[in-house]
Amino acid sequence: MIYLDNAATTPVFPEVAKEMFEILNTTFGNPSSIHNYGRSASKVVRQARHTIAEILGVPARNLIFTSGGSEANNQTLIGYALANRDKGNHIVTTAIEHHSVLHAVNYLRDRHGFDVTFVPPHADGSFTADLIAEALRDETIIVSTMYANNETGQLLPIAEIAELISPHQAVYHVDAVQVIGKIPIKPLELGIDFLSASAHKFHGPKGVGFLYHANFAFDNLIHGGEQEEGRRAGTENTHSIVGMAKALEMSAENFETNFNKVTALNSQLLSELSEFDFYINHFGNKVMPHVLNIGFPNMNQDLLLMKLDLQGVAISTGSACTAGAIEPSHVLAAVYGHDDKRLKESVRISLSDMTTSAEITEFVQILTNILKK
Predict the structure, then answer these.
(1) Contact 137/90 with Cβ under 8 angstroms?
(2) Please, which residues have CB within 8 angstroms of residue 218's CB and are 6 or more apart in sequence?
(3) What percent of the chain stands above pLDDT 90?
(4) What is the average pLDDT value for the chain, to the nearest integer?
(5) Residue 290 sits in the same domain as residue 147
(6) Which of 111, 153, 190, 197 is the most exposed, fewest CB within 10 Å of its CB?
(7) Is 135 found in the same domain as 35?
(8) Each residue of 322-367: pLDDT tens digit?
(9) How many angstroms separate the CA atoms of 297 and 300, rounded?
(10) If you ran DSSP here, which 8-state letter would residue 32 be given?
(11) Contact, 301 vs 346, CB < 8 A?
(12) Are residues 229 and 323 in the same domain?
């Protein structure tokens, strides 16, 4: 098997799996219980929180553990909007966001009467901070953008957007799911007020993530207990939280090495594909090397994925959250329009630091056989 769908999820580090298994067997108490078993569980959760906080350079008390990036996005957008609607009813986001953002703001619009602006990219697909600045109104209370696009790898100008927003009352939320664990991120230095992350994108377990928040008032999304300092009810997912912290710690120790490796793999892939007729859906000046969105003229994406799958190769057409849906990529549609044939030809190949050079070569050989038939 050749796994090249790391933007959907990454393999778990063996060291992470081992530590999680140890916690499951030895530290199974409820962190909210006051007996020794509970105190032991509470301690490892606290240690994990401090590990993540130190990597991000933020106070540990400003981290909320969640079930993943989607919950963190919903918690921010719905929680902040409902708690602060006396300041305004306008939300700004982009047309290329993950559906956990797009659907959350649509819910706020349709059920609670908020006004939402979906900012499209420039005609060439690039995205500049001035596009967000032009969308701001006096009544805007929150701006939400992704750090890197999950379908194309495009990096948005986070620091520039934050700087333009800073004089405004609006808070800035960043969906950092596709960059956490891949590049260093310091929310306080970047001017980020809320930041969402998910462990399974950086070799941690599925079903756990976190939200960094600055000191702003926001409503709880989940009610029923006083966990997470009363901000998110529910018994903590102890072994997964520990696994997430371990995965982020391991990734942070090798940021530069891993980034350079993935960059080299990306270059190798493009070099070995050079004999074929293909195009790259590359937008903006900065792109994460982990994601390559390409199209082969007149090759239907669904047919190509099926043939690759039969040969033991896993890639995708875009977001895993829309897999199986008949709608084309909303990200590519925001650039090309809904009727462009590229929406049916493009596939996403996504790499990780666990991908090998040999796998790239084998993938290209398999792809060669398919495309030449």
Answers:
(1) yes
(2) 75, 76, 79, 80, 83, 84
(3) 95
(4) 96
(5) no
(6) 111
(7) yes
(8) 555 557 899 999 999 999 999 999 999 999 999 999 999 999 999 9
(9) 8
(10) T
(11) yes
(12) no
Query: Phi and psi of 119, rounded to 5°?
Result: -80, 120
How many whole angstroms separate alpha carbon 145 and alpha carbon 164? 14
CA distances from 234 to 30, 89, 136, 215, 229 (A): 11, 30, 36, 22, 11
Both 137 and 92 in one domain: the answer is: yes
Query: 122 with 204, same domain?
Result: yes
Distance (Å, whole) CA 334 – CA 352: 27
Q: Do 30 and 137 reside in the same domain of the chain?
A: yes
- Which CATH number is 67's domain given? 3.40.640.10
* CA–CA distance, 223 with 226 (Å, rounded to integer): 9
Question: 318: pLDDT confidence band, cut at 50, 70 and 90?
Answer: confident
Q: How many alpha carbons lie under 13 Å from residue 341 in its C-beta half-sphere?
A: 6
Give the C-alpha separation, 201 to 7, whole Å: 7
Q: Looking at 210, 237, 252, which one is the last position of a domain? A: 252
CB 237, CB 282: distance < 8 Å: no
Domain count, the chain: 2
Q: Is residue 8 a contact partner of residue 350, using CB atoms and an 8 Å limit?
A: yes
If one compares 237 and 328, the residue with the highest pLDDT of the two is: 237
C-alpha span between 234 and 221 (Å, rounded): 11
| Domain enclosing residue 96, as ranges | 14-252
Q: Which of 17, 82, 133, 321 is catalytic?
A: 321
Task: Specify the pLDDT at position 372.
Answer: 85
Q: Is the distance from CB of 278 to CB of 373 less than 8 angstroms?
A: no
pLDDT digits (tens, 9 = 90+) for 136-150: 999 999 999 999 999
Domain boundary among 202, 228, 252: 252
pLDDT at 322: 52
321 counts as catalytic: yes
Give me the pLDDT at residue 373, please. Answer: 74
The domain that holds 327 is classified in CATH as: 3.90.1150.10
Q: What is the mean pLDDT of residues 94-104?
A: 98
Residues 65 and 208 in one domain: yes
Q: Are residues 213 and 324 in the same domain?
A: no
Which pTM value belongs to this model?
Answer: 0.96
